[in-house]
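re: ur question from yesterday

yeah so i grabbed the chain u mentioned. its 329 aa long if i counted rite. heres the sequnce exactly as i have it in my notes:
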Amino acid sequence: MKTEISTDRTAAVELLRQGAIVALPTETVYGLAADALNPIAVAKIFEAKERPRFDPLIVHLPDREWLEKVVDLPAQGRQLILKLADRFWPGPFTMVLPKREIVPEIVTAGLDTVAVRVSAHPVFSEIIRGFGKPLAAPSANRFGRVSPTTAQHVLDDLKDQIPLIIDGGPTTHGIESTIVAICAGGIHVLRRGPITEDQLSEFDNIDNLASAEKVSAPGQLPTHYAPKAPLRLIEDVNYFSPDKNQRVGLLGWNPVESKKNFAAVRYLSERQDLREAAANLFRYLRELDVLDVDLIVAEQVPDRGLGAAIMDRLRRAAHRPVDAQDRPE
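ran it thru and got these structure tokens back, copy pasting raw so excuse formatting
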């Protein structure tokens, strides 16, 4: 199968109607879309991504009118759910809610809940409205690898696995949507993202993050978003020394005193702007990875607000705690 990069939105709608999978831009990352109500089409997502079947998918809705067609809104929490939808949809915000039978088991990995959101991206919105039904659309990359923020990233990962990539330019947020569940204790954050806990706390209490031991939403596995090169998370780059003859790429936050220890350096944001850092995160990880470095060193960003979402991605990419020897005295 030859993969085409195009801006032909009509072709995307036609392929989706035929049960094919198509890569589409969203405001977070590029998604690999298929008819969410067609189990055979959804299975193609898992095959192309080599994604385990126990990892559920996000269902993107054409509009708010579809919410109660796919979700059985509970009486308890109903008003909170609708208020959150009013505030954050369309946008990078996903809610995990009780599903209706219309949603195939393959989409939810057998769970009785489904993750739903409405995308704000104009290209995605036009295509899903033209299609007229919900789309399942996880990130358009090989499972566990760095998420794609450009059409070229998708081609690099899924060339000859999918027929079409719709090019909508670089994504805005650069990290995946915030995912929440509504529970008795309030809003339960399952995955951090562009909508921060401070923003959510205006509506109700924020419960602790879910344990990764049980997958109840996408993006909860302990190892995820990983480049091919090993990634090491450190507090202060100026205390890092590479091994002899080791080629190291730096994903920096603070100015580095000397770049001689590094084969390449990318600063998430020279202005130390967390929104810019989030938008650059996956792109810079990919840029360092293609340089065939032996190791990528990522400096921690402030673990608050949007920085907490960035740190979540970096910790999963590294899947190891901050090394004790890299802590400043």
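noticed a couple things. The first strand starts at residue 4 and ends at 6. also Residues 10 and 131 are 9 Å apart (CA to CA).
anyway ttyl
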